[in-house]
Design goal:
Blueprint (H helix, E strand, L loop, with lengths): L3 H10 L6 E5 L6 H11 L7 E6 L3 H16 L15 H7 L10 E8 L3 H10 L7 E7 L8 E4 L5 H11 L4 H7 L1 H10 L4 H13 L5 H10 L1 H10 L7 H11 L4 H4 L1 E5 L8 H8 L4 E5 L6 H17 L7 H17 L10 H15 L5
Parallel strand pairs: 1-4, 1-5, 2-3, 3-4, 6-7
Helix pairs in contact: 3-5, 6-7, 6-8, 6-9, 8-10, 9-12, 11-12
Length: 367
């Protein structure tokens, strides 16, 4: 919404082989959304694949994400089972399948990178040996390195902000915004014309058809001091005040059940430390579920989330959070009609063989 010029410029910058483009800007300005929108708009162009990696998790996690994508999409290409994922990216790049000459373009989206010296070093290690067919798109809050191709995203123009608010507010969103034009304008101003804040406020309006924009504005202004205090107590949030205020507005009316958070974690000893127990006791909204000892069922839970992501979310387009939730629920209902239990395909012998190969490989390594 309101980013047509940026989308066109992004497409132009990503056209040359071997290019690297940075999307920068403050939290909530819509960097990730713009990157994903570019990917969806150019699905036919990136016939070699589109891979999104969560840069916040570091090199090991990104390498694991890449290897999982590679094995899932290119099962005919064998990767070593006894090699650490962090050592496999160069092999993935060199063996990435191609059916044309020159090979089809591939888009690599490195999302929410921490653009400090360490972040750039991780990026360098991950992309070592990258062929020119790969285009790199990196989103980050910090200023891009000197000399890099960069698009710095700012807040939306006011007309685009009003349009986004109306769209997110539901069926009568446009009429409600026009009826209370002055309050809608102030609402956008208080939210800093930031896309994330406007999406949250629009969701609040969509869930409350009887809520006046003037009342929502009053509630938002009342959250100003609380948002400032939250930012000071938790500077790692990295979000501007308009986003924090909108988040508080969205959070407040939720039921206790909706505010609860389930944590599925393994039985690592640190979870039973006195400090951890004390922290959880002070936060009753966190419900901890420990996996049974020597159990692998958590992997099956992760596989289920992977199925939802791959088959429904990744190639979908959603105009609101409400629509996304409805689509997920529909997918789950239809999936369950013909679903079967998850079954392990690896035998005990094959697992022991892998362990044996690993032991041989690391024997005498000196660590």
């Amino acid at each position: 919404m309101g980013r047509a010029a940026e989308l066109q410029r992004l497409a132009d910058l990503l056209a040359p082989e071997g290019c690297r483009v940075y999307l920068t800007g403050m939290g909530g300005v819509g960097k990730s959304e713009l990157a994903v929108q570019h990917a969806y708009d150019h699905l036919e162009h990136y016939r070699g694949g589109i891979v999104r990696l969560d840069a916040r998790q570091g090199l090991s996690a990104m390498a694991a994400q890449l290897v999982t994508f590679f094995r899932g999409h290119f099962p005919a290409v064998a990767l070593p089972d006894d090699t650490s994922p962090t050592d496999l990216p160069p092999l993935c790049w060199s063996q990435w399948p191609a059916s044309t000459n020159p090979p089809e373009p591939v888009l690599l989206l490195l999302d929410d990178q921490r653009g400090v010296a360490h972040g750039y070093e991780v990026e360098r290690q991950l992309f070592q040996g990258l062929p020119p067919r790969f285009r790199r798109l990196i989103t980050q809050r910090e200023i891009a390195p000197a000399g890099a191709q960069v698009i710095d995203l700012l807040w939306l123009r006011r007309d685009s902000a009003l349009e986004l608010l109306a769209l997110q507010a539901g069926e009568r969103g446009k009429g409600r915004v026009e009826e209370e034009e002055s309050d809608a304008d102030e609402l956008c101003a208080e939210a800093g014309d930031l896309p994330l804040a406007l999406v949250l406020l629009g969701a609040r309006l969509s869930g409350r058809p009887d809520l006046r924009l003037s009342q929502l504005l009053e509630d938002l202004l009342a959250k100003g001091a609380e948002a400032k205090a939250l930012q000071q107590a938790h500077p790692e949030l990295g979000a501007p005040r308009g986003v924090v205020e909108a988040l508080l507005i969205s959070w407040e009316p939720l039921s206790d059940a909706a505010k609860s958070l389930g944590l599925i974690i393994d039985n690592y000893c640190t979870h039973k430390h006195a400090k951890v127990k004390a922290w959880l006791a002070e936060r009753p909204q966190f419900h901890v579920h420990f996996t049974p000892s020597y159990s692998s069922w958590l992997n099956q839970v992760e596989r289920w989330f992977g199925i939802i992501t791959e088959r429904m979310i990744r190639r979908g387009s959603f105009r609101s959070v409400k629509e996304l939730i409805a689509r997920i629920e529909t997918f789950v209902a239809n999936f369950n009609k013909g679903s079967t239990p998850f079954m392990w395909t690896a035998t005990a012998d094959s697992i022991f063989e892998k362990i044996q190969r690993l032991c041989v490989r690391i024997s005498g390594a000196g660590h």
